[in-house]
């Protein structure tokens, strides 16, 4: 599964091959989340749009221009819900349209939430997936 999008007239293609990996912040841990599942989610999402984010870390391609001590990336984020650290559902899936965090939480189907950020280098097109626990 690939995911394609266009930004500033440049086409980006996210695949298994140009992904730097899935990184978990702090003590976060989600089992059952793969690169393929993230690419799938992006394809299924109807309002996916990447926007500029700035980080102090430079991509390994070394091609980004430095702007105020930081480097520009293209980023999109969405949320996933888990139960016992296992991935259950994401908020941009068709499956999620007829439910909500409160509903699923009330039914005991989920017990935690995470933000998934897909961060793309605008120069080389490589990207990373960052997962961080967050409260809904
Ligand atoms: Zn790069």
Automatic annotation (TrEMBL):
It comes from the Bacteria. Pfam families: DUF3785. This is DUF3785 domain-containing protein. It comes from Clostridium chromiireducens.
């Amino acid at each position: 599964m690939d995911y394609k999008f266009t930004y500033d007239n440049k086409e980006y293609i996210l695949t298994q091959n140009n992904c730097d990996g899935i990184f978990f912040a702090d003590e976060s841990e989600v089992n059952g989340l793969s690169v393929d599942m993230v690419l799938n989610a992006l394809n299924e999402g109807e309002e996916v749009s990447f926007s500029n984010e700035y980080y102090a870390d430079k991509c390994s391609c070394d091609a980004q221009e430095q702007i105020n001590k930081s480097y520009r990336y293209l980023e999109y984020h969405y949320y996933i819900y888990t139960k016992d650290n296992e991935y259950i559902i994401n908020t941009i899936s068709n499956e999620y349209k007829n439910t909500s965090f409160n509903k699923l939480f009330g039914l005991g189907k989920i017990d935690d939430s995470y933000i998934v950020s897909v961060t793309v280098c605008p120069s080389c097109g490589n990207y990373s997936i960052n997962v961080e626990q967050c409260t809904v």
